[in-house]
Amino acid sequence: MSGATVIIGAGFAGIATAYHLARRNVRDIVVLEREQGPGMHASGRNAGLLRQSSGDPATAELLRAGARAARRIAARIPGAIQTTGSLILGEAVDRLSGGPRARVVDAGDVVPGLTGRALFDPEDALIDPQALLGAYQSAARRRGVEFSFGESVEELDGCQVTTSARRIDAERVVVAAGAWASEVSRTIEIKPFRRHLFRGTCDGVTADTPFVWHEGDGVYFRPESGGVLMSPCDVEAHPVADPQYDDNQREVLAERIDATFGALGEWRIGNGWACLRSFAPDNRFVIGADPHVAGLYWVAGLGGHGVTASWAVGRLAARVILGQQDAGPFDPNRF
Asked: Would the pTM of this model clear 0.85, i.e. be above it?
């Protein structure tokens, strides 16, 4: 496949980038994925929060654009999206940028029992990550993108890719491997961190309750299928491997949920799992040309924002790769 564009990773970053490149008439795109299907790690194990708010204006711009596209796409898929709104609590709410209708409110006016000031964004939503990812993949395939699952990258030398099945002399290579990005190429440091999610119930949370995130206390919850999905917002450095579940985080969650949201009713915490989120050293996305290797590009370090930002991230990545736009604050050359 001489002259191909090889994208390493079939999560949100990789598939969205493939889709936008194909929309711009790039041919011979192949997405390589070591797992047997798309979104097997962070892209498919997250809480499905379509959240537009961020303390970084550049990131918030991508989140708003990505959320608009995600809402439009998911609206065509039965049951894929539920617009509940979001309520973000904490001392820093005045420094958050959200969607166009976001506003600072008294938290108790939106969710009785809560106290303090909060950013309320009525357009935020709960979305099915697999449905959104599947929509991207189907659209990319219709435009000729090839997906190869169960094919791992064993060596990357410039734009020569050696996999478990073949060697590809590519025109360009895009590293979109999430937590595994720096295992593919070590020119930029992307670090994985473990986070836990738990299912449970609370009598005071209904299907139309907004998802609520207290950034200061480090805990959030969202309604889910007659129950609640919640997280202690743990941020623990983790080896590049499938993360192991740690039951100690159940106790951490129980303490935080009771201290922060105990007024909403009795909380019962059930089963849980872990996933990895990946970050660059400055916590900003990494989108653009590698500073050392010609033809090598990065779409990585999305830090848990992949569901919301992916459409806009893929669009920006495609424009940067084709020389149509500068990556601005996301450029890998900042390192």
From this structure: yes
